Amino acid sequence: VYNAAPAWGVTVGDALGVPDPVLTQHQHQHQGQTFSFLGIRVSSPLSLVVNGKRPPGSALAPPCLALSNPSAPP
Predict the structure, then answer these.
(1) Under 8 Å CB-to-CB from 54, ≥6 apart: which residues?
(2) Which of 24, 29, 48, 72 gives 20 to 30 Å between its CA and that of 57?
(3) Tens of each residue's pLDDT in the chain, 74 residues
(4) Cβ 36 vs Cβ 26: under 8 Å
(5) Pick from 13, 4, 2: which is nearest to 40 by CA?
(6) Angstrom distance (rounded) from CA 52 to CA 16
């Protein structure tokens, strides 16, 4: 689950409700082999319903800022 906190997750046997899913077909080729699979995306793990309940706010991963300056000297 993208943007989920490391300490949060679902387990085998959990009932998962996915409102407003975006279904995407992925196709990748590597070393002569083609891999094809479907992916389901939602806007946030907080929009899911797990075992009839919404996840707590702590299920959302905190934001992380990454900066780079390619023109800066090493």
Answers:
(1) 46, 48
(2) 24
(3) 888 999 998 999 999 999 888 999 999 999 999 999 999 988 889 999 999 999 999 999 988 888 888 887 76
(4) yes
(5) 2
(6) 8
Match 């009932």 to its residue by tokens: 15
Cβ-contact 34, 28 below 8 angstroms: yes
* 3 state DSSP class of 44: coil
In this structure, the chain runs to a length of 74
Q: Identify the three-state secondary structure at position 17.
A: strand
What whole-number distance in Å separates Cα of residue 15 and Cα of residue 54?
A: 12
